[in-house]
Fold each of these.
Amino acid sequence: MWAEIIVTLIKLAVVIGVLFTTVPIMVWVERRGSALIQDRLGPNRVGPWGLLQPVVDAVKLLTKENLIPDGVNRFFYVLAPAIALVVALSTFIVIPFGSDPGLKLFGHAIDGFIVAPGLNLGILYIFAIASFGVYSIVLAGWSSDNKYALMGGIRSSAQMISYELAMTVAVVGVLMSTSSFRLDSIVLAQTGTWWGFLPRWNVFPQIIGAITFIVAVFAETNRLPFDLPEAEAELVAGYHTEYSSMKFASFFMSEYINMVTSSALIVILFFGGWTLPGVAAPSGWIGAILTVVVFSLKVAFFLWFFVWVRWTLPRFRFDQLMGLGWKVMVPLSVLNFVWVGAAMALRIL
Amino acid sequence: MVTYVFLVAALLAVVFSLVTIAHRSPVVNVLSLAIVFFALSAIYAMVGMDFLAAIQLIVYAGAVLVLFLFVIMLLNIRSVERLGSGRPLQAALGAAAAIAIGVAIILVIARQSPSFGSLLPDTGKGTAYSIGRALMTTHLFPFEFVSVLLLAALVGALVLARKEER
């Protein structure tokens, strides 16, 4: 009993610790990465290569005046950033970030590197919790009593619904070929190779599903080219225009944490999670840690991909965004779903 | 333990249902409804209907209520004026009818279920597998029929929203 609670608490501490340290690292990567792509220098004054810049930023945000403007709906104004952070942190508990071959800690089985190992809902849990994320943006926009913030909130609600559909249908193909909602089963189904060299990753048979999922995830995390809810050039800062200090930082952190969760989902669903083709993890703690390292490296690649896309593509116009969502993404995701069904019926997959 | 969780969820559902219909601000109404759905989803999960619990949140809280919020924000409704009906007899009759229907539903459920007043046991019928099988075998006709109905609604919406040809 106590060992179980301690093991779960350790997992929670590791996950939350890693998520909160990834945020400043990603802020640094984003700023240096944008500078690299745009042939600028970027932050390079604080610490070596500007590495301490996020620390200074955090201190600045913590010590700023905690302002609540006049005319806002105080309750919802304070609630909105809280929802954002709660949703961002609580989706990660069903993500398996490594494999352990039956290791024990304090006489209790670790039960996989996942905070909630017994939850059969898996990815459905993530979708259910993540569907509350849009409330934070919509409420922030509405309660701020600012027309730009309101515009951001309205845009966000339309965008989220449109892309959630394509994202969910794109995942259905993976769920069908695995016949499980559990993310660890999805990873295990992708071990091995086809014809001896091509890894059994879902991305190869379901390339359309993978592309639709990745594009939809960009829209769901409000990242460029889909950051219409906070389009700086049109809406000042969109839904968080009226937010300052740590309330702003809550939105900021939850965006980066959502990026980590999304990258982990992309890796698990389509890129084989912690598995590498043709390599069996060695047994014991070394093997377990190696799986975590492999998983983290894959996630790091997709985090860089988020930054890379942000500083490469321009922003969509709102009608283009809606057109892409309904006329391209939804039909493509259905096509993937039909193809997986047909392939399974013909016993190809 | 389960009983206490149920009591909290049920209390939340009842209280926020009342807030949903009684509060003046439409945004508060929609958010209270979201809490009601959350509480219901917790109750579903407790009786082993975890698939239904997730779908409840994804479909209702994640899509339907967000559409409601979208409309409310688009029209920027701050509060709703209470329309005095001026017809006390009709209002009383309506309330009586609502209570009668509620009592009737409770009686029917009490008659049907042998374990009324206690939580239903987990029958294993709430998994995606068994729900999918039931939809594709026993309830295939109503399932397909509903999809035709939804298609009709979709076409109807398109006809209404189509721009007039000049």
Amino acid sequence: MARVIVITSGKGGVGKTTTSASISTGLALRGFKTAVIDFDVGLRNLDLIMGCERRVVYDLINVVNGEANLNQALIKDKHCDNLFILPASQTRDKDALTEEGVEKVLKDLEHLGFDYILCDSPAGIERGAVMALTFADEAIVVSNPEVSSVRDSDRILGILQSKSRRAIEGREPVKEHLLVTRYSPKRVEDGEMLSYKDVQELLRIPLIGVIPESDDVLQASNQGTPAIHLKDSDVATAYLDVVARFLDEDRPLRFVAYEKPGLLKRLFGGK
Amino acid sequence: MADASLQGKLIEFKGASLAVMTAYVRETDAVRLADALHMMLGGMPDFFAGEPAILDFSQLGNSPDRVDWTAVLSLLRRYQLQPVGVRNLDEHLQEGARRAGLAVLRAESFSAERPVAAAQPRTPPPAPAPAPAPTLSPTPVEAAPQAPAAAPSDNGLDNGLAPTLVVDRPLRSGQQVYAKGGDLVLLAGMSPGSEIIADGSIHCYGPLRGRALAGARGDTSARIFSTNFGPELVSIAGVYRTFERGIPQTVAGRGAQVRLTGSDNLHTLEITPLQYD
């Protein structure tokens, strides 16, 4: 059985696509056959972050409309053999997504032997976002440590509770995970930012990880390499931890405590 | 052929009973009504979510010579209230109401207690003056799935048999639950931006952070209980309070109850800490 995981948030710019790219890569690195679908019809970002934008020929809408088959549309990742990307369409709009069409794509992916299917949700609560979460078995809700982002995440959790197939059919509810991204322990210490504990207290779902704010993320997306590939960086380590926790391994939280820079660091600068 | 058998039935009539809200209109001047509604409902233009309503003029101060129905109706519709009829309206105003598309209902066709025949709307008891949302039903798309429209009970509010609505999962921003005729129990708290309404009392285990309205049909003995108090608004039988300047220190984040004290015409909302030990 393929597990369908939606990466969602409500608010834009919180790191959904970065997270989708890194977690799908992480799962593929663990040996799972993984597909990641960009549901942001009209805006198409995932292929850029994954560095495969030049290889896009067919997209999700083509497959939904039966203009191409899955094998034609799936793009093999340049780093991992068992990771495939299904890009969004840039020329169509969200109305082109139909529930039956999406369901068929997911079923077909399952027949192709995929273990995990990640759905990278667009921002907002419109059609694209609802389509991305409709068939989810699990949801990773990405939130920045900031009130409006938390409020939007809360809203999307409500929609998950009411519009997902699992909810409508009265099956076991979608398993929810909270991922706090762009976290800056220093700004939390200074009282400028909500702590991850505050965020979790507000949303009341299990925490799967905290991703520190880092310039590496920008650099990684410019290069078209998922951040999880940046060897020895905090961000990559944090995402590897998230993947491990997703697979039910125990990992302590890292990068959440603020350490004052030492004397040498203060004298000689550096980050 | 299915077509043939349906040929004569392009439209079919069946009796239905409808729970409907009564708006006691005490002023017919559209401008003054607009001010009052704005005061009451503030920035919530979609407050009534298309709810049908009967306009009752029994409490109208002095009867005007004429009523600008177009203005009054468009004002109410702006709040998505859907007036369907009028009652207790003076004879000389009825023709205008009819022309405005409203049904003129005979006062005796209502029985507040028992909805006897089909198509006889039930009339809730009058709520005290600023009564927000007497009968909002949960919005079908967003309401939590475990919040079915509780079966309407003819029993009224006082026999203890009204159904209790229990919500097991956290209520999220944008969700709304209405416990019709009875109490509401939240087992996992509620988030800011969500709304709970009960005709009886509200019991919230976990954070109470959205809008909580108890005694929505005028039960002044209804109360709100919470183990973690921090709402945006509380209301009992229409007497409400917001917390612009923050929640009082004695109850913020703690167990607290909200109830009405005082006599019939001078109700005040009292918020007190709950002692468990």
